[in-house]
Each structure stands twice: as C-alpha cells, then as structure tokens.
Amino acid sequence: MSTLPIADYAILSDCRSAALVSRAGSVDWWCPARFDAPAVFARLLDDRAGRFALRPTREAGATRAYRDRSLVLETRFTRPDGEVIVTDALALGPDERGHDLGFGSPGVLLRCVEGLRGAVEMELELAPRPEYGLIRPVLFAADGGGLWMRGGADVLRLSAPFPVAIDGSTARARFTVTGGERLAFALHAARTPEPLPAGFSQAGIINRLDDTLAAWTAWSRMHQRYDGPWRDLVDLSGRVLQGLTYARTGALVAAPTTSLPEHVGGARNWDYRYTWVRDASLTLRALWIAACPDEAHRFFAWMAGAASARLCAGEHLPVMFGVGGEHDLSERALDHLGGWRRSRPVRVGNGAWRQHQIDVYGALLDAYWRLEAELGAPDPITARMLVAAADTAAARWTEADHGIWEIRGAPDHFLHSKLMCWVACERGRCLAPRLGAEHRVEAWTRARDAIGAAILERGFSARAGAFTQTLDGEALDASALCVPLVGFLPATDPRVRATIEAIATRLTDARGLVRRYDPREVDDGVGGGEGAFLLCTFWLAHALALAGEVDRAREVFERAAGHANDLGLLAEEVDPRTGDLLGNFPQAFSHIGLVDAAWAIHEASR
After folding, report:
1. Which of 38, 195, 303, 350 pairs as cysteine with 131 (C-beta 3.0–4.6 A)?
2. If you average pLDDT over residues 264-278, what whole number do you get?
3. Checking phi first, is residue 229 left (phi over 0); if not, alpha (psi -120 to 50) or beta?
C-alpha cells in the first residue's frame, strides 16, 4: 500500500509526459510515452507497481528546490559524514529553447548525484513494472554498464557508470559518492517497434541535464513577466501549467496522475490526465498572466480543432478530450492495484466524457473573447465553430445537465451551467463582427436576456440568502462565485455580496477553506465525503477582490496558498481533518485559481 503524503512529491516534465519523485529520491510515477499512457512506475498507487529509487542507504535530512526557474529538481541529502545533491529532470534537448519546449524525442529520465563533502553511500533500485504494475519485465545487462528492460510494449535502457546487479525484474546497486565526484544515470524509454534507444555516456547525460536546465530557464526568461504580489508562486504556477501541456497539440491536462483520492479510503478517485473544455477560459487567462500569449494561442488552436467537428455537425460538444484530441475516454478499473492508502477503485479513463454538460459552450466563447487581441482573427472553421457554440447554448440552455462538478446522479438545472450559457450568448454578441455573425446578434440577445432572467428569478434563494447550486434550489455551491467572475453581476451587487458571505461562513471548513458543496445536502451519485476545494477557495479570494475587500481577499488567498508543499505545488483538495493535500497532483485547476486570484488582488490593490 502506498502511504507517502501527496505533498511529498515533486513533478518533472518534458511537456509530453510527467514523473513524480518523492522527497526520499524515489520516482514513483512515470508514463513515458505521454501523460495518459500506461505507467512504467506506479508505486504511487501500489508498492508493487514499480519505482526508480536513488537515495542514501542511511537516514539523511532532505531539502529540495527547483533550480533557476525550471522544473529541474535538486534534492540535497545531508548526513553528519557527508552531503550530496541529486538532480532529476525529464530531458529536453539543445534545440528546445523558448517557444519549443516538448518537441524533441520523448522519454528520457535524467538523474545525477554529486558529492559536496565527505562520503555518502548511495543505493539505486530500478523496478520497472509496465502497464501500471501488471507486467514484471525481463532485465538483462548492457555493454558498458547499465541494463536493458523489455516488457509488453515498453523498452527501457538504463545508462549507468557501472554494472548493476539484476535480481529477477529488479536491478540494484550500492556505491559511494565523495566530495567533488559526480555520477549520472539516464533511463531512456521507447515503445516497440521504435528503434531501440542508445546508451548515454557520463558526459552525454550531464550535457542533457545542462540542455534541459537551459531550455527551462530560457523559456522562463522569455515568457514570465508577471510583476505583482506572490510572484514566486505565480511564476511557479506558470511553469507547472507549461509542464502539464502536451506540446505536440497544445492540450493541457488537468493533472498528470490518476486516482489520488478526494477522500482517503473513498471512491472519489478519478483519472485527470485529460483536457476539459470548461477549463479553457480559466486556463487561457492564467497562461496569459503567468506565461505568455504563445501558450494561450496554441492551447486554443488545439481546443478549437478538437471541438469543431462535433459542433459544426450540430452534435453535443464533449466535456473533455484526450491530449491528442481523442473523444472516447472509456473508464475502467485497475483491480490489481491497491490504491493510495487503500483508496479504490483505481481508474483509468474517465466516464465523464459521456456526460452532457451545457457549460462548455460558454467556456469556449469566453476563452476566445478573453484573449481576442492576442489570438487574432479566427480562421473560417474556428469562426463557424464559435457561432455553432453560441447557437447551441441559445437553443439548449433550458436542458438539465450534469454540471461543472460532473454529478454522477440524475441531471439537474445547475446555476453554473445556465450562467455559462449566458456567457456564450453574451460573448457571441460581442464577437459577432469578428465571426461574420452579425445576423445572429438578435437571437443571441434574446437568449441572453431569457437566461439572465431565469438566473435572477430562480437562481437566487431568499431562504438560502444566496445564489444556489440549482435553479429553485437551496443548497449552496461554490461555483456561484463565478457570477461576478464572468461579469454577470458586479461583485458589489447585494445578491452577490450575500452569496460571498454565505459561502464564506457556511461552506467553509474549520481551516477556512471552501468546499464545492456539502455532500450531505447534495446527492452527487458518488457518496462519501471529500476535502475542501482549493480552486473554490481561490475563487472566494478573487470575488472578494472584485468586491473591494482586498485585505480579506489576501487572507483567503494566503490561507489557500499556504497549503502548497515546500516546492509550491498544489493538489486539488485539502483534508479538513489533517490539512494534508488530497486529489490528483499537481492540479492545474488549483494553480489556475492561484494565478487568477493573485492577478485580481493585484489589480484591486492599484
């Protein structure tokens, strides 16, 4: 059973895939081919599912940091008799600078241990377990040190400065590193029938590490110009969002992991290695603030391409896509995995791809509207797709759906879904000249006004004293904080102010963090509890800033940001009992919320 705290991990990325490495130097998650490919290390979800450990043999203190505004990780292990630094990265190439992160050859994990003083005995343990631990591969020695691995469709080549002992499907070595000495390792992944990966020399591995660091720092210098409060956190969030981007298409995954639970031992364990349409507008704004319009342009171009076929054919727009634009993301359970802290089932795929959610149309149009100047004039297919999105929202806003939180119970009339249909019609009106759709303005205006009236008449409950989760309902939902965020009403409107206060007082836990909704009041078709939602807490900070309550906004922001781990990384939720991070990690939504709230507070403080 995997038991390490989620906060114990750091992310490595080559903008195609991601790895998670623990504070103790164990790579416990890696899907080499791409974010949603089968993992060759999945100890994160089961102790038997494989890892790559590089660590001192005896107990050592550990401190870590990302180096020079990059996702190159340095972990310093300190003992009375010596000190070493282990540097970890997923390789980028010498040509991957500035705009081109993630376009080189994929799948090279680089690890280097450098002695600073004394002598430290180290151990290496390589236990690859392809297909999420289902396969125990064959290992055999390679000429010049290191080894080969074959198992299923995966081939791995470990380059090492010395031979390693093979014990069945696991390789091990012990060695001592002295002050001034540097030993490097590279694990190169391929899929059959790709050409077999060649080994790396020691100098070659060091050069790849240097190239990777240079690529990240060049990208940060060119793209990260935010100059407001919490700059380090905003910049780190920008790099995390870049690291969660599948560069070959521009798609951005919600998280690089699957099945890290929202409640320990519960069933709220989902696969987040896909791209959600509804995240589009929030993602684009965060990329613009924390990175640059180039990333935003690439993301929207991919999203438009993935969505256009269905929309232009008059069909429902899918909720989500695979990073290559795939539509079928069928969900299944991996019954051979025990789950993080016995949280089962472990899932791959996500059944929400089949859901009907009408908020997605507003997300697409809002995404384009927010960055219209940077994105430029739409091509004919994109323009047609955006017109179709506005038309669909205008025609279908009265339908019940599964809502922003992807309720797995019966469809309902969720306020947030209606709100985003209002956004679709309003943004469509504003963009009509760009889209060649002036003739649609009257119809979109009528629909916008009808939706707005329904929200005001049926979405605000005098008894609840707030905008509620559903029309004619009384349960609170943090997504009502989006009412001022999308510009439906100003944050100073009495109904909005009442909603902010209701959520701040009745939908927060003892730590002052905001829950999405109260599972005891809402039948979401899953059951069980969940943690406080960091995105919703950042929404509260954002709304307070818009309402002019900057000091309160700062307090709420720092309360949420204070749950980042030592590197600044955030998961999806926080356990209300322990304060531990919960859910998939690192979570794009949480980092997006952080960036947007920091920007709103910055603007409100001027």
Report:
1. 38
2. 92
3. beta
φ/ψ (deg, to 5) at 604: -70, -20
Tell me the DSSP string of 459-490: SEETTTTEE-SBTT-----GGGGHHHHTTSS-
Query: Does 538 share its domain with 420?
Result: yes
CB 50 within 8 A of CB 67: no
Same domain, 206 and 236: no
Say what the pLDDT of residue 316 is: 84
CA 125 to chain centre: 29
| Closest to 173 in 3D by CA, of 162, 157, 158 | 162
Summarised one tens digit per residue, pLDDT across range 67-88 is 999 999 999 999 999 999 999 9
Highest-confidence segment of 138-147, 172-181, 310-319 = 172-181
**Count of domains in the chain?**
2
- Is the pTM above the cut of 0.90? yes
CA distance linking residue 268 with residue 263, whole number of Å: 7
Answer yes or no: are the C-beta atoms of 303 and 364 closer than 8 Å: yes
Residue with tokens 């089961």: 46
Which pair of tokens denotes residue 462?
Answer: 């005098």
Task: Give the residue carrying structure tokens 């859901």.
Answer: 355
- One-character DSSP codes across 331-396: -EE-TT---BTT----EES-GGGG---TTHHHHHHHHHHHTHHHH-SPPHHHHHHHHHHHHHHHHH
A 10 A CB-CB count for 202 gives: 17
Q: Domain of 216: which CATH number?
A: 2.70.98
CATH code for the domain of 329? 1.50.10.10
Q: Which residues, in sequence order, are CB contacts of 258 under 8 Å at separation 6+?
A: 45, 269, 270, 271, 272, 273, 346, 347, 348, 584
d(CA 239, CA 67): 12
Residue 1 belongs to a domain: no
Tokens 């906060």 identify what position? 7
pLDDT tens profile 20-48: 999 999 999 999 999 999 999 999 999 99
Q: What pLDDT score does 518 carry?
A: 92
Tokens of 453: 């009236």
Taking alpha carbons only, the member of 571, 565, 574 closest to residue 66 is 565
Regarding whether 236 and 152 lie in a shared domain, the answer is no
Same domain flag for 289 and 374: yes
Q: Which domain holds residue 439?
A: 224-604
Residues 6+ apart with CB under 8 A from 494: none
Q: Does residue 246 form part of some domain?
A: yes
Tell me, letter by letter, the H, E, C secondary structure of 271-282: ECCCEEHHHHHH
Residues 549, 278: Cα–Cα separation, whole Å: 28
When pLDDT is cut at 50, 70 and 90, the band that residue 97 belongs to is low
Are 157 and 148 in contact, with CB atoms under 8 Å apart?
A: yes
Give the other-Cβ count within 10 Å of 315's Cβ. 11
Together in a domain, 436 and 544: yes
pLDDT range class, residue 197, cuts 50, 70, 90? confident
Q: Which of 604, 420, 405, 603 is nearest to 519 (CA)?
A: 405
Instruction: Answer yes or no: do 543 and 427 share one domain.
Output: yes
Q: Tell me how long the chain is.
A: 606
The neighbouring-strand residues paired with 140 are: 148
Domain finish residue from 202, 220, 238:
220
